[in-house]
Amino acid sequence: MAKGYWVSAYTKINKPEQVVEYSKMATVAFKEGGGHPLVRGVAAMTQGAGVKERTVVIEFDSLEQAIAAYNSAMYQEALKILGDACERDFRIVEGVA
What we know:
The chain is of the alpha+beta class and 97 residues long.
């Protein structure tokens, strides 16, 4: 079975303190959903339209698990905290089996 991944590329952070609060709750939510962080930090290098901002990759045992964690009540609360604190490209993708 292929793994599932949350991939977040932040393009602009407007309210860093709010992002920190979101991150605390989001970390609990994805861990409760079975997720494991693979990447968290500012890009070391970018190409094309890449922006040197925060990038996060969370691995789950399956795509279904990644989607369920996103839809969990706790993660949805974390998103409310995040609000308009940043602009980001968030995706859930299936890994190569």
